[in-house]
Amino acid sequence: MNVPENLHYTEEHEWISVSDNIITVGITDYAQGELGDVVYVELPEEGEEFAQMDTFGTIEAVKAVSDLFSPVSGKVVKINSALADSPEIINKDPYGDGWMIQIELENKSELDQLLNAEQYKEKIS
C-alpha cells in the first residue's frame, strides 16, 4: 500500500500536502482501491469556504458513492478541473495528478489533528 511519508491523512482517507498556507487535498491510494473505478467527481467552486470536516464534494465509483471531507478550514483557491473529463486519473495517480482541491489554510493548528503516515498505515492495516 502506497502511503507517502511526507503527507498528512484524515480518518476518512483524504491526504493533505502543505506548502506555506496552501493545502492540496486528494484521496489516498487505499481509498481509491476500495472504491474501484472512479467514474465521477463533484468538486466545489473556487472561492467556496469550508470548516474542518465539512463535506466539500462527492466521489462516485462503480462500487459506491462517498462524501469528500475538508481536512482543514479555509477557502478553496483551486480545483483540479481535469477530473471533470477524466476522473479515472484518481485511480492512476491519487497522490499526483489525481489531487482534487487546494485550500488556503485558516488555522494551522488544525493540521495537528491529522494523522501522520505511520498512524494512517495502522488505521488501514
Give an overview of the whole structure.
This protein is of the alpha+beta class and 125 residues long. It has one domain: OB fold (Dihydrolipoamide Acetyltransferase, E2P) (Beta Barrel). Helices cover 18% and strands 35% of the residues. The chain has a 6-stranded antiparallel sheet with strand order 1-2-3-9-8-5. A 3-stranded antiparallel sheet has the order 4-6-7. Strand 2 and strand 3 (22-27) form a beta hairpin. It starts with 7 loop residues before the first strand and ends with a helix. The mean pLDDT is 96.
Layout: helices, strands, pairs:
Layout: E1 8-9, E2 14-19, E3 22-27, H1 29-35, E4 38-42, E5 49-50, E6 55-61, E7 65-69, E8 74-79, H2 82-85, H3 89-92, E9 101-105, H4 117-124
Antiparallel strand pairs: 1-2, 2-3, 3-9, 4-6, 5-8, 6-7, 8-9
